[in-house]
Design goal:
Length: 423
């Protein structure tokens, strides 16, 4: 057989084999990379959002994921093409939630479009955190609309605090934060920690998707509580009514919650159509995690990194005291271009890292007497220790006071409203 003819026949056999293999693939197998089944990570959940009204689990007799949606893919297949230079473009490429054309969406679009300065502030705050969140959202195979959820929850303000005691950019209430491993003590509140709270929020959203298989119901549950959503779906099923977000009864806030996110998605998708100018955000990390095993003053840490206190607090908003306390190891977040500066300055720093010390109040001592001894005002003493202005100190209570009677003047962004002894 001639070499050329042999080559042609070999090619024909190869093509036939490929065709047969493709024919035997199960339906949808070519899209399997975009599917995500996180059932192995599922765990009991509680509502996270600022105004949760129900913390009851979904009724066990309701097979929601089988009745609500046939498409249980948690997100799109992530393209392997060249990464966009602009982070907004990367986010647009990952949009996967269904369109929602309603009056509520139009009203929300109009609200944001009429407030360009507000949008500008949101973008400015988000630029520190958005890359990390998009990375985590994509890693879990979620639609990138989820990265916009903190806009609806907190306007990307890490110090946001609601009347329902929800805190941080993801607005965790205390009980749900504890359920997802977020520490809340005298020293820190991890609901405000950017990395820890993001991981916890995405865990919770994954668990909700395991329950409902539909992103609109997932978001409704994040706001209202999965138990409440589950019971509303059960009522519709018993009445023979549709079981979807558009059909169930829910509070007005929850009715408007999903439309707000879809409205924000529409604005991010086509800013000029709404008269919005989105400032460029580079598609690259803003911060890097630096492990520390030694306690250090917040003010000193910012100084060693050569950044302002505002910048340090924006990246490390979980700390409630002027000293960063560590047990084992705790990470600091620093701008990527300041990491080496911090390491070099820390290595060359030959003075104490902490200028505050613990002090136990003795019987008969007053705040005024302690303040005279340590050279600070009563207001400052209470601010540092998270004590309400009208509340008195008590014998045996542990306070932070300046070392050598000198207050370093560290800025404190958030104080605990329920002081307790340091742990």
């Amino acid at each position: 057989m001639q070499p050329k003819r042999r080559l042609q026949q070999s090619a024909a056999v190869l093509l036939t084999g490929i065709a047969l293999a493709v024919a035997w693939l199960p339906a949808g197998a070519e899209d399997v990379a975009g599917d995500y089944n996180a059932s192995a990570q599922a765990q009991p959940s509680q509502p996270v959002s600022a105004t949760p009204t129900d913390q009851t689990a979904v009724p066990p007799d309701l097979s929601l994921s089988n009745e609500i949606s046939k498409d249980v893919s948690i997100g799109p297949v992530i393209s392997k093409t060249a990464a966009p230079v602009d982070l907004w473009e990367r986010i647009r490429n990952g949009f996967a939630m269904a369109e929602l054309d309603s009056k509520a969406v139009r009203n929300s679009e109009a609200f944001y479009a009429a407030r360009p300065e507000y949008m500008k502030r949101i973008v400015e705050r988000s630029r520190r955190y958005l890359f990390h969140i998009v990375e985590e959202v994509e890693r879990r195979g979620m639609p990138t609309e989820i990265a916009l959820l903190p806009i609806i929850e907190s306007a990307y303000n890490p110090q946001a605090y609601s009347r329902s005691h929800a805190s941080g950019i993801w607005q965790f209430i205390p009980s749900t934060g504890k359920h997802y491993g977020l520490q809340q003590n005298w020293w820190q509140d991890d609901r405000r920690d950017i990395v820890a709270a993001t991981s916890a929020a995405l865990d919770y959203l994954q668990n909700l998707h395991n329950m409902f298989g539909d992103w609109e119901l997932v978001l409704a549950s994040y706001n209202w509580g999965e138990g409440a959503v589950g019971r509303s779906l059960t009522k519709n099923r018993n009445k023979g009514l549709p079981m979807d977000f558009r059909s169930i009864k829910m509070p007005r806030e929850t009715q408007n919650y999903v439309p707000k996110l879809i409205a924000m998605k529409n604005i991010i998708a086509k800013p000029p159509a709404f008269g919005i100018l989105l400032d460029h955000i580079p598609n690259q990390p803003y911060f890097e995690k630096i492990a520390t095993t030694r306690a250090i003053d917040v003010k000193l840490a910012a100084s060693l990194a050569d950044i302002s206190m505002d910048e340090f607090n924006a990246l490390n908003p979980a700390h409630s005291r002027p000293v960063i306390n560590v047990k084992g190891s705790r990470a600091l977040l620093l701008p990527v271009d300041k990491v080496e500066t911090f390491r070099t300055n820390l290595e060359n720093h030959d003075k104490p890292l902490v200028s505050w010390q613990a002090y136990q109040v003795k019987k008969g001592e007053t705040a005024e007497k302690i303040c005279v001894r340590y050279g600070l005002s009563v207001a400052r003493l209470k601010e540092v220790n998270g004590i309400a202005a009208r509340k008195k100190i008590t014998p045996g209570q542990t306070l932070l006071v300046p070392v050598n009677g000198k207050d370093g003047g560290t800025d404190i962004s958030v104080m605990s409203n329920k002081p307790a002894d340091p742990v």
